Structures are given as C-alpha cells and as structure tokens.
C-alpha cells in the first residue's frame, strides 16, 4: 500500500498521481494518490491527512509504516508550492505515531535547508516525546537561522491556497470510496516447523 500526498496539475512533473490512479493489475487499489493544488495550508492539509490515513489504517491494517516527511511542503520552500508550517507538518507525524504501529520515519525533499533542519529536528523531538525549546542554541551554524533564530519561524502565506472546500471534499470522498474496494492487508500464515 502506498499513500502519496503531493502537488499535482499544471503539467507538474511527472504528470501522474491523480486521485483516480489507484494502481493496476495485482496492485489495483494499493495506490492512494492525494493530488494537491498550490498553497495548501495547515488546516486544509490536516482535513485531508488525518481522515485519509485513518481510513487507510482501518482498511489495510498495516503491520508497519514507512513515513517519508518531505519538507518541500513547508511554506517558503525554494522549490515547493505549499504553505505548511513546521508545527502543521509535525501534526502529521504525531497523528501517525498515535497508531502505535512500528514506523520508520525518513526525510525527503526540502530546498530551504535551514527550514528542513528545523522541521526534522522538531519531528525527531516529537517521535522521542521530547520537549524542545523554540529558541535555537548557539552553534557554529547559528547565523544560518537568521533573522529569528527560532525553531518555528513564520513560513506560511507564501502562495494563495487554491484547494477549494469542494475540491478537498471530492478528494476525501474519492479516496475513501476507492479504499472500500481494497482487500485487507495480505498475510502470511504462520505454522510450527518441526526440528529434525
């Protein structure tokens, strides 16, 4: 099962990932695409991420999760086109963690390096249930984090949110309908093997 929340449309490379692309042949319905338009913000992203991930976990019943946290979804990313804050990004990590399913968390895209570092630091702290100060400690890299020198600078409102309520509702409804067609997670039967 693969679930992808990503930029889609306007000839954006590679041009795949529409919500109706659900996989083919034996993989049919094992691909969940959540195509997003420019400017999605924390509230709108949250209104999709949580119900979709909840539905996937309920229908598929995974025994492990690989969560790839692409920081190019943060507002003010050099190449990104979304408006997520670091805290909003972290909400997704916290939500997945609540399932208490073994999870491997990976970094991913992100092209404003100082914000990528902030994001992954914050998410690592969330995963470790560790409180972390918003004020950054002084290090040899301190100047990279100017002008505010904080973990949670304002990185939002770079691009207008083009994801309308109607569009978001359509995505959510389509994904949930597609999941209903999915057989549950495949399993391997365990049996005792005799010792010779």
TrEMBL record:
Top-level lineage group: Eukaryota
Domain Histone deacetylase: 1-126
N-terminal signal peptide: none
Protein name: Histone deacetylase 3
Entry's Gene Ontology molecular function annotations: histone deacetylase activity
GO biological process, one term: epigenetic regulation of gene expression
Pfam families: Hist_deacetyl
Upper taxonomic lineage: Eukaryota, Metazoa, Porifera, Demospongiae, Heteroscleromorpha
SUPFAM superfamilies named in the record: Arginase/deacetylase
